[in-house]
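Lab notebook, bench 4. Still working through the backlog of constructs that have no structural model yet. Next entry is a single chain of 505 residues. Request: give me the structure tokens for it.
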Amino acid sequence: MKDMSYNAVMGRRAEIIKSAVGMDYSRFESGSIAFDYEGMMKATGLDINEVRRIQESFAIGHTPLIELKNITALARKMAPKGKGARIFIKDEACNPSGSFKARRAATSIYTAREMGYKGAIAATSGNYGAAVASICAMAGLKCIIVQECYDSRYIGQPEIIEKARKCEAFGAEVVQLSVGPELFYETLRMLEDTGYFNASLYTPYGIIGVETLGYEIAEQFRARFGKDPDAVVCTNAGGGNLTGTARGLRKAGCSAKVIAASVNLSGLHMASDTQFNKKSFTTGHTGFGVPFSTWPDRSDVPRSAARPLRYMDRYVTVAQGEVFYMTEMLASLEGLERGPAGDTSLAAAFSVAQEMDEDQCIVVQETEYTGAGKHVNPQLAFARKNGIDIHFGDPAEEVPGKSIILPAHPSLIKARDFNIEHMRHSLIKNAVASVDHAPTEEDIRFLAEEVQRDAAYVKAVLAELTFTGSLLLIGIGLNVMGLTKLRILNMMPAVLFPILLCQFM
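Model written out:
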């Protein structure tokens, strides 16, 4: 009998994942930081036309592109003269499971069936679970969805519980866990026990399914207006949404600027039991968006296919109150009731559109369904029960985990730029920390692709890290030897000096 203890199962994770995905990731790895990303994506054997055929067989895709004329008119009232781009949404709530996640589920479950798997398992608290359950029902496969939805008091997030009901409606078995490290362990254990397919959010099969979304946006826009949209806004969490959409735009030759948008939940730790129910958004927030952007390979597969820093041109955040307000605005001005994930991007687009010219166009690339637990009212009621102060005012003053501030006026909806340069530096730092040797030239080329910069940029960042680290080590060494009593933490602002110096040089 196999040892099913935590340490034993985690020790077999590479073997379990390889068996459950049907892809040998070692084929693409070099033993260092670099790996063959495009080779991994091509290993799916699926091109854009085949993906479209698969999705059409499940009644997925070809969702409408809708112009939000009333919201555009309101944005123009807030904008300087001559500003206020036309705002459009790609209405992905029209897919069978109610979100764009149906696209990545279709290619994943199709692959699982073709490989001979009898069922699929997905670890997700979001819309992806419902998507996998829906496609498994169509494909005749068994389905298990693993959710992290409760704190230690067994109090669950209404949005996640709503999604559990949707999964069960499609015939899936739902395993609900409390927040903590057991999610990955339980998923691995069930994968090994059942022999099911790992329908991870982060496999190439999943990400390539989202490419049709970007491709359709380009096609539909050109058919209607004879040009490309000027910007496409993607809600960013684990990075698959943005990565797949951007890759599809590129395959269509679309020149649109790709803007990432997340709800600002800074200060809240996503793995904290006490803070779990202090957040009013379960996805599309900085608790996923930032760490998964700065080190994608923290997922349930050896190499994540979601690598958003390769594709994003700008990263903005919005407050919780702004998203709730925008959800109500979409319903009252456009007659569309949609869920919070897509409305995150819509809140960002409402603000960014005011920076753009009137003859420009901005597309919110996805919407999602809304339901009992996902609706604004139960979310705000749950927040109030957890001690969150809710009032109207300036969302810029919102403190995640303590307050939700609904804008007193739509002019107060402001997308705030996140420091994407800092994220690029963080990715390089995290990559270097993952190996026990100096980066090779191949590694440097790979990192340049990861952050959309050249090799010289990566080498400059590596020089900064080396210089700063050396100074701090010297200080620590002198303290240990008793020669000095330097306050090392007071030296941390000096970290900024080499950054500024390198930029100047």
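Notes after review: The chain has three domains: 6-50+99-204, 61-97+208-417, 420-504. Residues 455-480 form the longest helix (26 residues). Flag for follow-up if needed.
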